[in-house]
């Protein structure tokens, strides 16, 4: 038997699939126990079809989704169009028609995954999406198959290649945020509207999916606090360096005694921490658990071939399950009731960069404000800033999110103090 | 139904299993779709049994393997005794009796895995051993399930925690090999006879197993060249630092145009390479492939809980396959004919540390010898050594193993030259 694929979209990732099927055909066929073949490819319109054919792409291109849905020979539909619609409608149609679906669409899965997953289950078909988190890193299947025996307590991830590329330039070369963004755009790493990448939204999508696999909780995007990298200044980067840290945009998901907490935020990462050496467009998922302790999964978070590799791995699993007649198991079976953490249980050290008037007694006043919220200092740096202003950098001892909100409110009441930035500080 | 386990041995790793079954019972049961229970535990003798019972271990201890083999209620036998015999005989008995087997015994699997694997296949039972390579890192199942779509071209692994702990101390603290060994022994990381760890034999076992999963070739231990860390001097470490490298004991398996080559050797790793920050007893497997490109899997290579976590992950997969009625698939299905590489195809840069007389013309003579084998220099450092001797450090451009053997032979013919050390130099 030959397993036939229907591709939806033939952009960056989709056009990487033929490369793997050709270059690695023997291994793929042996693992799947069947030949895998691209049967039809959905493109937007006749113009695109003509263009692709002219460019030498020898596929059966169609412009109507129903040509794929109604084709009973097509076993697996591969959605690689991106965006919510029409991807959602097309996937829904495919699942309803009893077809297995592979997707890399993190936006869609983070926001509407639940209904698609339950539709797939009702229909007894597979819905896999390894490529949706950290592109080429096989993290989801590893969590679903290997970390079953372990209890995950925290996941820390460098989950967005664009922002990590920019931060790497800001740390290693002292570039400003603006310079880094322009270069990222020139290199094609950042889109003309970079909001999703630099504001932590893309990483938040991935945090939603990681929460399912790591903690069994299908939280919503609105449950993931996110803060981007655009406010990071060269001064913040320099102070971090001086104190032995690098700044990374970290997606953090942890389980506290009261429940789950997920956020994406720029974080001070100790230089000795494995995540500190994840540079450029690379991604990594660092897992803390009661059994293994600490493990990390590192690789390219995007790119044609890495992402297509994850997509094809999903296809091979489905093909193999078809052969074994065990198809229909959910990609992730770990499921628990959602319980979100009290903010008072979410604890971390924090970095504060505060501008104060350059006169006596400022540090005392700051110390009093922090102390009133039971926050103590681990490190303090005081420097003269411009003109009549001084800059105070504080690394606190561990404190809760509640204390953070309270102290931030109190600081904002003092007209003379200006909190420039507040970032999380990770431990070793 | 309850899945019943028979444990062979109740040492470090085995006694970590109850911890996971208790602390993570809900998740494990949900993933396995059945309760998992330790039914019987084989110990050496009555004395051990009495000791363990007195220490509060409430298990059904037996001293005769046949009590487990003949117990038709026991589904899975977990071998955690170590060494070749009687482990091999016991596993063989268990497989013959139609029981599934989980083991962490790298020595046994690297040297006799082939026959045990084929026996398991004949009997239609599972034989899993995730814990045998890099303890807590779920690398084998990830290769078998996720890297199926990818073609691996090279694996580089920091595979031995003991030697990596020692090298980390030698690099970070400037300790000598001897000091590092004494401390490793004090901390229980190294055995009183540390040969297997420091001479690269333990890492070679793991390289054998990684060759199966990464390249589909079941090579023998004799096919893995190995060289240990005992000859590394503080001078080597210092020069490496100076040139931007750290020294690691690296297991390298690569496929050249003519076939597979595997070796374990101290290697200069560029400080910017992800393997360079794998420190202390941590392990990592760095994979180069045509699809993902570069990925790395990092975690503890040993220890009670990490290793038990991998063992229990195997148990959960078997239990689940029993439930799904798909039991009996080999752990690794990737299999190709063994073809070993010509040494002339195996290429790398090399570090040479050579002691020469402290007089004119030595470097020229060295350059002539290297040049006669078509080897050129990337970097040269010449320093005065003790007395009448000088020390020359050379980093070559890429050269083959054949050239290495030839130039080493030629150097040994010059009585005045003394090659102190030759190490591989990895690229970025
Ligand atoms: N690129 C990566 O490295 C990466 C990594 C991880 C995950 N992903 C995910 O993978 C998916 C695909 O990404 P990509 O980078 O391959 O995107 P892409 O290059 O933009 O490809 C998407 C393709 O789908 C086509 N398309 C859009 N709407 C369509 C429709 N209604 N019918 C037919 N074709 C349609 C697009 O055509 P037009 O160009 O004409 O709109 C485009 O050719 C996205 O969900 C993305 O988030 C990508
Ligand atoms: N420890 C790790 O971190 C780690 C990591 C990866 C893989 N592994 C592998 O896991 C396996 C177990 O390692 P371990 O560290 O747990 O070793 P261990 O602490 O020495 O435990 C082995 C146990 O088996 C017992 N035993 C030996 N022969 C026996 C026999 N014939 N019948 C019954 N019991 C017998 C030993 O008893 P005696 O002490 O009386 O001999 C000992 O209690 C080994 O194959 C090892 O290579 C270990």
* Beta-strand content bin of chain A: 25-35%
Given this structure, which CATH class of the largest domain in chain A is correct?
Answer: Alpha Beta
> How much is the average pLDDT of chain A?
96
In total, the number of domains of chain A comes to 3
CATH topology of the largest domain in chain A: Dihydrodipicolinate Reductase, domain 2
Identify the biggest protein-protein contact and residues per side.
A-B, 56 and 57 residues
Query: Radius of gyration of chain A, rounded?
Result: 24 Å
Oligomeric form of this entry? homodimer
Structural category of chain A is alpha/beta
Shape of chain A: elongated
CATH-scheme architecture of the largest domain in chain A: 2-Layer Sandwich
- Describe the largest sheet of chain A: 11 strands, mixed
Please report the number of helical segments of chain A: 15
The helical percent of chain A reads 25-40%
As residue ranges, the low-confidence spans of chain A are: none
Distance between the termini of chain A: 52 Å
CATH superfamily of the largest domain in chain A: Dihydrodipicolinate Reductase, domain 2
Q: How many strand segments of chain A?
A: 17
Can you list the ligands bound to this structure? NADP nicotinamide-adenine-dinucleotide phosphate
Enzyme class (chains A, B): oxidoreductase
Domain ACT (chains A, B): 351-425
GO molecular function, one term (chains A, B): homoserine dehydrogenase activity
Catalytic activity (chains A, B): L-homoserine + NADP(+) = L-aspartate 4-semialdehyde + NADPH + H(+)
